[in-house]
Amino acid sequence: MDAHLKETRIDGELAYDGHFLKVQRDRIKLPNGAETGREFIKHPGAVVILPLLDDGRVLLERQFRYPLDRVFIELPAGKIDPGEESLACAKRELEEETGYSASEWHYLTTIHNAIAYSDEYLDIFLARGLQAGEVKLDEGEFIETITATPEEMLDWVRTGRITDVKTIIGAFWLERINSGAWKLG
C-alpha cells in the first residue's frame, strides 16, 4: 500500500557511539530507485508521566537543558533502561525525579517527537493517587518540582512558557480527558 513511499536500507554503520546517543549512517534506496544517505539518532525510547495530584493540579518539573542553555518546564520523563518495560520505567522515573509514587496508572499513547532525525519514541502515562516520598535524583541531575492547574498549564503553552513538545502533548491530552471528550481505556 505504501510501497511508492518506502525507503529501503542497503547498508549502514554506526557513525557515533556515545554514552547516551548513537548516530546511525545508512545508505538507502529511494522509491524511484535512486540511492542516498540517511543519518539518524538511535534512542532506546522513553516515558513521559502526567502526574495528577488529588486536587487536580499537575506535578511538573523545572530542569536546565544544556543544548538550549535554559530552564524548561516539563512533565517528568526518562529513558527506558535495557530490558525494562515502559510502565516500570514510568514508575521508577516518577519516584526518582519527584519523590512521588502513584496507585493508579493509565497508558495514554506513544508519540514520536523527532521523526526526521531520530527513532525515539515516548510512551505517555497518566498517574493518579499520588503519594509523596523521597526524591532519588541520578548523579548530576538537578530538578525542581512545581505544580500547575490544567488551565495554567494550557496558558503556559499558549504564552510560550512551556515549549517542550512532550509536555505540550500531555497538556492537550489532559484537557481532552478532563472535558470528557476522551475516555481512559
UniProtKB/TrEMBL annotation:
Its cofactor is Mg(2+). PROSITE patterns: NUDIX (PS51462), NUDIX_BOX (PS00893). Keywords: Hydrolase. One of its GO terms (cellular component) is cytosol. Pfam families: NUDIX. It catalyses: GDP-alpha-D-mannose + H2O = alpha-D-mannose 1-phosphate + GMP + 2 H(+). Residues 41-170 form the Nudix hydrolase domain. The keyword Zinc does not apply. Signal peptide: none annotated. GO terms for molecular function: hydrolase activity. One of its GO terms (biological process) is nucleoside phosphate metabolic process. InterPro entries: NUDIX_hydrolase-like_dom_sf, NUDIX_hydrolase_CS, NUDIX_hydrolase_dom. The keyword Nucleotidyltransferase does not apply. Belongs to the Nudix hydrolase family. NudK subfamily. This is GDP-mannose pyrophosphatase. It comes from Pseudoduganella violacea.
